[in-house]
Amino acid sequence: MTAFSPDMAASVAGSRSRIGQQLVEAGVVSIGQLQEALRLQPVQRGKGDLIGSILVELGYLGQADLLQFLFQQFRKERLAYQVVPAEEGIIEFRGIEKILDGRRVLDGIDLVIPRGKITAVIGVSGGGKSVTLKHMVGLMKPTRGSVLVGGRDLATLSTKELSQVRRRFSMLFQGGALFDSLSVFDNVAFPLRETTGLSEEVIRHRVERALKEVNLAGMGGKFPDDLSGGMSKRVALARALVTEPEILLLDEPTAGLDPIIENAIHYLICDTFMRTRLTMVLISHAVPDIFNWCHHVVALHQGKVLESAPSWAIAQSENPVIRQFIRGDLEGPIQVI
User: Which of 80, 116, 200, 206 lies deepest, with the highest CB count within 10 Å?
Assistant: First the structure.
């Protein structure tokens, strides 16, 4: 195979996810095809790498082939993480307790979320998953304990400092939480108009790019009532990505979707991760499939962390609660009937 020239290597190195280089090294596209795509790639592309999408537009590979390729690359990285887990954390819980209406929802949680990885939070309904997610971004304050983001204790921050930390996050809420009265474009533009002083021209560019990233280019004029469940999820994801966050929180991104659309959303999340290298934390009931789509898993039950480990370790856990949850058994320590 033709080797990369120094100029070519430098060009590809600018892509945070190195997708173009990976495609060439795998023999999926040629260097010439990649060079053409690089010439067409927008200069101001934010944290995303649209090389794959441009190659699809040029007809050099199919969209399904691109997603499958990205999944295979992600799988290699995920398997490597199982052997050598990341040591660096970006979010840390220290002895977190939360009491709501006299009930202890979180019960002494100690937890570290690895930086630049996908972490899935699993467990039965009512186990504290959504409350945990809200503590990460400071939407809830703990009754006891400390939440640290990048080493900074949220409880010690001023209102201005907390606002700055929150700008590192975006959140995809359960159900999408789109505004019915706003168009798709205005839904995605909403956080930029509310939290930044960007011009409408810049906002338009970023919204169009975000919609393109979730395969909804040209759909900005539609309204939520015109969308399918899967399309609504993609609009919500575009809105979460448009602020170019460092950390993306996803609360049940595949809830209420049929198996085909659920699989498509998982591929889209994988695609987003491979392009942006965001730290992602998602709540999911898509067990056991979710173990194929994340590096790390946190198993919560009754407000406690049962285990926090690479996905393969949780999948093979001997903990009876985790085993029952994964298998969906009626008999076991979790009483469902």
Answer: 206
Q: How far apart are CA 33 and CA 63, in angstroms?
A: 16
CA distance 272 to 210: 11
Cα(150)–Cα(312) distance, integer angstroms: 27
Between CA 84 and CA 70 the distance in angstroms is 21
Domain boundaries, the chain: 9-83
DSSP string, 174-242: TT----TTS-HHHHHHHHHHHH----HHHHHHHHHHHHHHTT-TT-TT--GGGS-HHHHHHHHHHHHHT
Rounded to whole angstroms, what are the CA distances from 179 to 153, 166, 223, 224, 254?
33, 21, 9, 7, 19
Beta strands in the chain (DSSP E): 89-100, 103-114, 118-122, 144-149, 152-153, 169-172, 247-251, 279-283, 296-301, 304-310
Tell me if residue 104 falls in helix, strand or coil: strand
- 3-class secondary structure, 301: strand
What Å distances lie between residue 230 and 211, 214, 219, 285, CA to CA? 14, 11, 14, 17
Q: Where are the beta strands (DSSP E) in 252-303?
A: 279-283, 296-301
How are beta strands 247-251 and 118-122 bridged, if at all?
A: unpaired
pLDDT digits (tens, 9 = 90+) for 320-330: 999 999 998 88
pLDDT per residue over 270-315, tens digit each? Answer: 999 998 899 999 999 888 999 999 999 999 999 999 999 999 999 9
Tokens at 112, concatenated: 């570290």
Phi-psi region of 75 (alpha: psi -120 to 50; beta: other; left: phi over 0): alpha
